[in-house]
Amino acid sequence: MASESGHGVTVFCLPYAGGSAAIYRDWPARVPSWLKLVALHLPGRGIRHAVRPIHRWPPLLDLLIEDVQPYVGRPFAIFGHSMGALIGIELAHAIRERFGVSPVWVGASACKAPSRREQQLHWLTCGESHFIDEIRSLGGMPDELLGNREFMELVLPTLRADFHLCGSYEHDASRRPLDCPLLAIGGTEDREIAAHPPHLAAWSAESAGPFELKKIHAGHFFINTHRDEVIGLMVDSLARALSSRGPSGESLLKRSPA
Predict the structure, then answer these.
(1) What domains, with CATH codes, occur in the chain?
(2) Active-site residue among 20, 82, 109, 207?
(3) How far apart are alpha carbons 94 and 111 in whole angstroms?
(4) Is 82 a catalytic residue?
C-alpha cells in the first residue's frame, strides 16, 4: 500500500451508467490542494474501452480493488454519481473487508439508496427500442446520438451491462454500516428522487457517521450541468468531515502537493 504523503485525502470518483472517468477530467483544477482526485476507469470505456463490459458485481469490485489498492494506506474518500454512488458504497465495504480500512467520507449523488432499490433483470435482453426509450427518458444523451445507429451499436453493450449491474443489485441489510460522514445529493427535477424523497434520505442508514442531504435545482445529470455546485458541496462536506476528526483531520486540510 502507498504511504501517506503529498495530498491530504484521495477521492475515488465513479461515473454514472455509460459514463467514463472523463466526466471528472476538469475537477482536479477546481478543488483545493489538500484533495487528490482519482477517477476510476470502468470496463468498456475510456482507457478500458477494449475490455468487455462487466455486468456482475464480484468481478467489477475485484477490478476496482486492484486500482485503489496503492492508495488505501492513507486517508481516502469516495464520490459517485448515480450508478457510481452504488458502486462507491460497495467499493467502500469491499475495501474495509479486504484491507481493514474505511473511507473518511462518502458522497452519493443522484442515486436511490441501496435499501430502496428494486431488482430489474431485463436490461441485457430487452428490445433495443425499449432500452433506448429508457435512456432518452433520463435525459443524459441527445437525440442526435440516440438516432446514430453506428454510435449506439458501440455504446449499447456497455449501457446494457451498467443497467443490469444496477438492476441486479441486492442490498445486504445484515452487514455493519460504514462509520464515516456521508453526503447525499439529489436533483429537485430528477424524476425518481424528486417524486420519492425517502429514496435519497435512506442513504442515512448506510453509515453510522454524520449524514447530510443536499438538493440541487436540476435534473438527474446535474453533475454535468451544475458541476461547480456539486464540487462545492463535496469540498465543504469533506472539510467538515476532516475538521470533526480533530487535529489529525485538520492537519490533512493544510497539506499541499509534495
Answers:
(1) 9-118+174-253 (3.40.50.1820)
(2) 82
(3) 19
(4) yes
